[in-house]
Structure formats: structure tokens, C-alpha cells
Amino acid sequence: KAIKAPNNTGMMLGKGRGAEIVRAVRAHSFPHAGWGRGYKISKEQIVGLLVALEIFAEEGDALYAEQMETAEYFEGELRDIPGVDVCIMPNDESFHEHVFTPRVPRVLLLWDAREIGLTGKDVDEAMAREDPPVFLRNSKYFTYFTDKEWRQIDTYYLREEEAKIVAMRLKKILRGGGSR
Questions:
Q1: Can you give the residue ranges of every domain in the chain?
Q2: Which of 102, 112, 165, 166 is packed most tightly, with the most Cβ within 10 A?
Q3: Please, where are the H alpha helices in 13-159?
Q4: pLDDT tens digits, residue range 106-120?
Q5: CA separation for the pair 144, 87 (Å, rounded)
Q6: Which numeric CATH code is attached to 60-179?
């Protein structure tokens, strides 16, 4: 996803134990000498992957910087909501929230449902109810070991005007509490 290549393309890379897995996959592919042939990947898709990889290598840091600016915008807009803690999870070399998390900064919102009067599900429903519907990240593959409610804002594909809509709506919902 991160390199924005054709959806049905991908790469098998690894070192150490990962290199062993790559060799095992190659041994089971058909034919052994061709790129993608065993999975019916067309030459156009392979070229698309290579071009996307070149663009990503050239523009990846600039894209990350834009995403970090978006995360900082959210932090600035939402940090003054009483009872809501806001922090940026950079998902860079300094911190990764999960082993499978891509290098994309995310904004973590934490709040006490008793204090705010809203559960995470309440926020989800309120965000989805308006036009356009908005869906926050609430992945099930990890927990923050907290009794607080939480949601994440993923900066990956957000454009500036979309970020403004999300921030405005979150402020309205989280400040309105149980009176929704």
C-alpha cells in the first residue's frame, strides 16, 4: 500500500530468517526463473510496481513530512478539548506502534468515557452519521492496556480539506459529550 503500486503486486524481501522464507517461496513458484509468472502478474503490473517503487524512493521522505504536518495540525486542533489526550505516534525509526504498522504518522486520541460521556463506539457512530461519513482507526490487533477509550486518525491519504472536516467534527462531538 505504502508505495502505491498496482493492488495485486508486491515484493518478498527479507534478511536472516526472512531470507529463508523468500527462498522457500521461490522454490515453490512456477516457473522458477520468471518474475510473477506463477501468479499471472502481467508485465504492465510489474512495470507499474517498479515505477511506483522509484517514485516512492524519490518522494517517500517528502510524503512522510506532509503526513507529519497533518498529524501536527490535528494535535494543535484537538489538544484543548477537556478530558481528551492527544499524541502523535510517528511510526518512524524512533517509535512504531506495532510491528505491522507502516511508516505513517498517526494521531492517538484517548479519553475517559465517564468524563466525556462518550464511548469509542459513540464517537464512531457520530462521525459516520454526517456527510461525508468519517471512519477513525480502531484496530483490533493491539490494545493500549488502558481503561480509556481511544481512536486513531490515520494521516495516510488525508487531504488538507478532509483533515479540516475531521478535526471540526471531532471537536464538535467530543466537546458535546453525551448530549449528541
A1: 17-58, 60-179
A2: 166
A3: 17-27, 43-78, 113-116, 120-129
A4: 999 999 999 999 999
A5: 13
A6: 3.90.1150.110
